[in-house]
Amino acid sequence: MTQALRGMKIAFLVANEGIEQVELTEPWTAIEEAGGRPVLIAPERGEAQAFNHLDKADSFPVEVQASDAQVSDYAGLVLPGGVANPDALRLDSDAVAFVKGFVDQGKPIAAICHAPWTLVEADVVKGKALTSWPSLRTDISNAGGQWSDEPVVISDTQGWTLVTSRKPDDLPAFNKAAVTAFSSGGPGDQAG
Q: Which end of the chain is less congested by CB atoms within 10 angstroms, N or C?
């Protein structure tokens, strides 16, 4: 996987507060180690406050405001979890439109833990297989997704790749699958 993402920018979309820190930092490091350039995007400029479950952790500088973000600038999208993070993103129309734009352009998305709530809001899970934190099962099913309890689920249907995982313990499998999805560009565009 070394340098599989050389020269590629990968968007990390978060709310300005409530991100589960390890679900941001470990995928971020995996993207960097694969030669990619992660970019932090949030609804507001300034900083994004991460948490270790319910305890405040580090804050991270926001590079691009969601209203200014262009899907065409990125090879893929990572949606970190944390309960409050995707719940806040669901209420931001620019963030939801940004997510929908990746689907419309057939670009891969990787979402972990509670992050599929943003996918549900963008109305893009119908017909997709995915996993998440167990409390999202009903929301995903009601939105037309096929939920399963697996460490990582990769769905290449409907012209775009979705990588999902349940929780921080799944991060090694999630990171590997995300880097692979981003390096291949998605279904029908399998790089060698």
A: C
Is 53 known to be catalytic?
Answer: no
For residue 20, what are the β-bridge partners?
Answer: 51
Is 113 one of the catalytic residues? yes
Give the CATH number of domain 9-184.
3.40.50.880
Strand, helix or coil for residue 63: coil
Residue ranges of the domains in the chain? Answer: 9-184
Give me the residues of the chain with pLDDT under 70, please: 1, 186-192
| Residues 161, 178: Cα–Cα separation, whole Å | 10
Q: Which secondary structure element, helix H or strand E, spans residue 50, and what is its range? A: strand 47-52
* 8-state DSSP, 67: G
Q: Catalytic residue among 31, 113, 162, 178, which?
A: 113
- Annotated active-site residue in 90, 107, 114, 167: 114
Q: What is the pLDDT of residues 6-29, one digit of tens each?
A: 999 999 999 999 999 999 999 999
Angle at which helices 21-33 and 171-184 cross, to 10°: 50
